[in-house]
Amino acid sequence: MTRLWTPDVGDGRIEVLRLDFDLEAPWPDADWDVLTAEERERALRFLRHEDRLRMISTRAALRRLLGERLGVDPSTLRFTAGRYGRPELAGGVSFNVSHSGDFALIAISQRWAVGVDIEQVRETSDLAGLASLALTAEEHEGIDAAGFFARWTAKEAALKALGLGIVEKLQAFSVWPGLGDLYELRHAEADWGDLRAARLEAPSGYAAALAWKSP
């Protein structure tokens, strides 16, 4: 795993780690062994080997990281599902995962509610159509694929940090370049509080973002 830069958020650190997959390799027995029976069953529902490997490797890594921070056996952790199916864990630890292509990101914080997203930047003939669904009118003016996925990852990470569904709030706010790697989030949602987001370093051909707010 590779530890990524995260912005200085004052009290309460945020960790973001990147997993690099070998999608042609078998998944390690040690990863399989740390999963619950339900997680193994869910992994085997995927038809493609690479999808199974992503799920198994990401969940095993998440369990080990959380187990290390909480001082418990990773295999004993029991997740619950939030309103939109997002896994949650009692004990004051916020976490989020995202995977795309050959990579996955895991964000963990014991102070902030966190969301993370990584997406493979894909050229598409319907970029205007996607932009009209995900971006405000000002955002999608003159947008290219790299710009679209940069904004998309920031929006998805922000909505995950808020614990909201992705689709219904995409156009409730806009994302603009801020200071350094920080984004400026413009919205009129009073209950979103001090929501913030930043660009994360991503491999060539990918875009990634982190978002956080007070829980």
Structure characterization notes:
The chain has 215 residues and is α+β, with helices and mostly antiparallel strands. The protein has a single domain (2-213), classed as Ribosomal Protein L22, Chain A (Alpha-Beta Complex). Helices cover 29% and strands 27% of the residues. The protein has helices spanning 29-34, 37-44, 49-70, 127-134, 145-162, and strands spanning 2-3, 14-20, 80-81, 87-88, 94-100, 103-109, 113-120, 173-177, 182-187, 196-199, 206-213. The strands form three sheets. Strands 7-11-10-9-8 form a five-stranded antiparallel beta sheet, with helices on one face. The chain has a four-stranded antiparallel beta sheet with strand order 1-2-6-5, covered by helices on one side. A hairpin with an 8-residue loop joins strand 9 and strand 10. Helix 2 (37-44) packs antiparallel against helix 3 (49-70). The longest helix has 22 residues, at 49-70. The protein is globular and about 50 Å long. The model has no long low-confidence stretch (mean pLDDT 90).
List keywords for this structure.
215 residues, Ribosomal Protein L22, Chain A, 5-stranded antiparallel β-sheet, 4-stranded antiparallel β-sheet, 5 helices, 11 strands, 29% helix, globular
Task: Provide the CATH architecture.
Answer: Alpha-Beta Complex
Largest sheet: 5 strands, antiparallel
Looking at how many chains there are and whether they match, the oligomeric state comes to single chain
End-to-end CA span? 27 Å
Number of domains: 1
User: From the alpha-carbon coordinates, what is the Rg to the nearest angstrom?
Assistant: 17 Å
Order of helices and strands: EEHHHEEEEEHHEEEE
| Strands side by side in the biggest sheet | 7-11-10-9-8
* Secondary structure tally, helices: 5
Strand residue percentage:
25-35%
Unreliable segments of 5+ consecutive residues:
none
Task: Tell me the overall shape.
Answer: globular
CATH topology annotation: Ribosomal Protein L22, Chain A
- CATH level 1 name: Alpha Beta
Task: Name the average pLDDT.
Answer: 90
Question: What structural class do you assign from the helix and strand content?
Answer: alpha+beta
Helix fraction? 25-40%
According to DSSP, the number of beta strands is: 11
